[in-house]
Design brief:
The complex is a heterodimer of chains A (208) and B (261). Chain A has 208 residues and is mostly helical. Chain A contains eleven helices and two strands; from the N terminus they run αααααααααααββ. Chain A has a two-stranded antiparallel ribbon with strand order 1-2. In chain A, a hairpin with a 6-residue loop joins strand 1 and strand 2 (205-207). Chain A is elongated. Chain A starts with 6 loop residues before the first helix and ends with a strand. By secondary structure, chain B is an all-alpha fold. Chain B has helices at 17-22, 30-38, 40-59, 73-82, 99-106, 118-138, 151-162, 169-193, 200-223, 228-251; strands spanning 3-4, 13-14. Chain B has a two-stranded antiparallel sheet. In chain B, a hairpin with an 8-residue loop joins strand 1 (3-4) and strand 2 (13-14). In chain B, helix 6 (118-138) crosses helix 7. Chain B is elongated and about 90 Å long. Classes of the chains: A mainly alpha (208), B mainly alpha (261). Chains A and B meet through helix 2, helix 3, helix 8, helix 10 and helix 11 of A and helix 1, helix 3 and helix 4 of B.
Chain lengths: 208, 261
C-alpha cells in the first residue's frame, strides 16, 4: 500500500481481486482483519473451543459475502457486521445456542445473596459467561457492539421489546456479579453494608 | 416500582433494580430525579450501572494484533478451495519436506521474534548465519577440511555453483532436496562420530544461537510458509540443533545426562 492511495481504493482493489479468487488478495484481507474478526468470534462464542469451531465457517462466509460490499461503508465496518452476523448464524447451527430466543429463567434474575457471592466475577468477560445465551447475546450486541434493539430483533428473530427485556435483566445480573468492580468506593458510611435483596419475585428490593 | 424502606434521609422509596438498568432507555421521571438527588444508595446504584456500561463499551476496544489466530490460513485456504471461492491451485512446495519439520514449523513454540522483523533476520541469516553455522560446524572436521571457516568462503562456493544451469525446476528441486538430505545425514553423522573434543560451553553457545535462528526462521515461515529458502533455513537450523544436542550429550561426562542447557 502506498501513501498516495486512499484506504477505500486500496480495499476496493483488494476485494475485487479476492472476489476473483486471488489467493494473495484473500490472504491479505485475512491478515488485515483476522485479529478483529477473531475478537468478535471469541466474544460472541464465549468459549475458546467453540470459537475455534466456528471461526473457519465465519471466514468462509465473509469471503462468500464479499460481492455484497458496495463500498458505501468502510470495509472494516462491513467486515465487523458480517462477522457478527455469520458468527451468530454459525453458533445457531452448532445448536449450542438453542435457547437463544427463550426468556431468562425466572430464577436467574433472582439470586440468593450467598450463592451470588460465590458467583462474583473478576472480569466482565467472565461475568457474561454466567448469563443465559439469549441474555448474553443481547447484552453483547447492544452494550458492546452498539446494535439497536431493532437490529438485534432482526438478527435474533425476536421482538425489540424482548430484546430490551433481556438487556435489562442481563445488566441487572451483571451488576450483581460484578459488584466489587462497579460499586463506587464511598467515604464514611459504606453502601456495601446496605445490601439489596429481592423481597418478592417482581424485582423489588429493600435495605437490610 | 417503588419500595418503602423507611430509613432514607429525604425520600422513602428506592428505584426498582431493573429500573436502573433501563434509565438510559427511559429518562428518569421528575420523582425519580428528586429521589436520586436525595438518596446516596440509589445514586451509587446508578453509578454502578454506568460503570458497568462503560466496562461493556471497553470490551469493544481494538483487539490485540498478536493474539493467536483462531484459524490458520492453510486450513482456511483449503476450505475456500472446496467452496470454490479460491481458484488458484494450492502452491506445490519446491521440495518435499520431511513431515516432522513441517509439523515443527507449523505448530511452533511461542515465537520470541515478531513478524515485522523477519525479513531483516532472514537477510542476516542468508549472509552470515549460513556461513557461520557451516564454518563453526566444520572446524576441524574432515567433511569441509579445506576449511571454509567464514561466510565469505561458503558464499564464494555458492556463487560458483550458480553458474551451473539446471534443465528444469524439477531438476533443481531434486538437487536441492538431495543436498538437504546430505547435509542432514552429514550433520548427524558428525554428531555421532566427530571425536574432536569440544568444551560443552561451545555446544551450549551454538544451541542458543540455533534457537535464535529457529525462532527467526519459524516466524518467517508463518508469513511465507511455502518459501523454499526459508524452509531450508529452518530445516538447516533444526538439523544442526538436533546434531548439536546429540554432540552435547556425548561431550558431557558419562555420569551426567542432558536435561537442559
Amino acid at each position: 500500500m502506498t501513501d498516495s492511495m486512499e484506504p477505500m481504493e486500496t480495499d476496493a482493489a483488494i476485494v475485487r481481486r479476492a472476489i476473483e479468487g486471488d489467493e494473495r488478495a484473500m490472504r491479505l484481507l485475512w491478515n488485515q482483519h483476522a485479529p478483529h474478526v477473531d475478537a468478535v468470534v471469541r466474544r460472541l462464542a464465549g468459549d475458546a473451543d467453540l470459537a475455534q469451531d466456528v471461526a473457519q465457517e465465519v471466514w468462509i462466509q465473509i469471503f462468500r459475502a464479499l460481492p455484497s460490499w458496495r463500498g458505501d461503508a468502510k470495509f472494516s465496518t462491513w467486515v465487523h457486521r458480517v462477522a457478527i452476523n455469520r458468527t451468530l448464524n454459525a453458533l445457531r447451527r452448532t445448536r449450542r445456542q438453542a435457547l437463544i430466543e427463550t426468556e431468562i429463567e425466572d430464577d436467574s434474575a433472582v439470586v440468593e445473596q450467598d450463592s451470588e457471592r460465590s458467583m462474583l466475577a473478576q472480569t466482565i468477560e467472565e461475568a457474561t459467561r454466567k448469563l443465559s445465551p439469549g441474555a448474553r447475546t443481547v447484552f453483547l450486541l447492544h452494550d458492546v457492539e452498539g446494535y439497536t434493539h431493532e437490529e438485534i430483533a432482526i438478527e435474533l428473530g425476536i421482538t425489540s421489546g424482548g430484546s430490551k427485556s433481556q438487556l435489562f435483566k442481563a445488566r441487572a445480573k451483571l451488576r450483581r456479579l460484578l459488584a466489587p468492580l462497579v460499586d463506587a468506593p464511598t467515604s464514611g458510611k459504606s453502601n456495601r453494608g446496605m445490601e439489596h435483596r429481592y423481597v418478592d419475585g417482581h424485582g423489588e428490593y429493600a435495605e437490610r | 416500582m417503588w419500595t418503602d424502606t423507611g430509613n432514607m434521609q429525604n425520600a422513602n422509596q428506592h428505584l426498582d433494580l431493573e429500573r436502573f438498568a433501563a434509565l438510559d432507555h427511559q429518562a428518569p421521571t421528575t420523582d425519580e430525579l428528586a429521589h436520586l438527588a436525595a438518596c446516596t444508595v440509589c445514586r451509587a446504584e446508578r453509578h454502578a450501572y454506568l460503570t458497568l456500561q462503560g466496562m461493556a463499551a471497553a470490551m469493544a476496544a481494538p483487539s490485540v494484533p498478536d493474539a493467536p489466530r483462531l484459524v490458520e490460513w492453510e486450513r482456511l485456504a483449503s476450505g475456500l478451495r472446496q467452496e470454490g471461492l479460491l481458484t488458484s491451485p494450492p502452491p506445490v512446495p519446491a521440495v518435499t519436506m520431511p513431515e516432522t519439520f513441517i509439523d515443527v514449523a507449523r505448530h511452533p513454540q511461542p515465537a520470541r521474534v515478531s513478524s515485522p522483523g523477519w525479513l531483516r533476520v532472514a537477510a542476516a541469516l542468508v549472509f552470515t548465519a549460513g556461513g557461520a553455522l557451516f564454518g563453526r560446524w566444520s572446524s576441524g572436521a574432515p567433511l569441509m577440511s579445506t576449511a571454509p571457516t567464514s561466510g565469505s568462503a561458503v558464499s564464494a562456493t555458492l556463487v560458483s555453483d550458480r553458474d551451473n544451469a539446471f534443465a528444469s525446476v524439477q531438476q533443481a528441486s531434486e538437487v536441492l532436496y538431495r543436498a538437504q538430505r546430505d547435509y542432514e545425514r552429514a550433520s548427524l553423522w558428525l554428531a555421532a562420530n566427530d571425536t574432536t573434543i569440544h568444551d560443552s560451553g561451545v555446544y551450549r553457545a551454538r544451541l542458543a544461537a540455533l534457537d535464535q535462528m529457529m525462532t527467526a526462521s519459524r516466524a518467517a515461515l508463518r508469513e511465507a510458509p511455502q518459501d523454499p529458502v526459508l524452509n531450508h533455513y529452518f530445516l538447516a537450523a533444526y538439523t544442526a540443533r538436533e546434531a548439536t544436542l546429540q554432540a552435547l550429550g556425548g561431550a558431557l561426562p558419562v555420569d551426567k545426562s542432558l536435561e537442559r542447557y
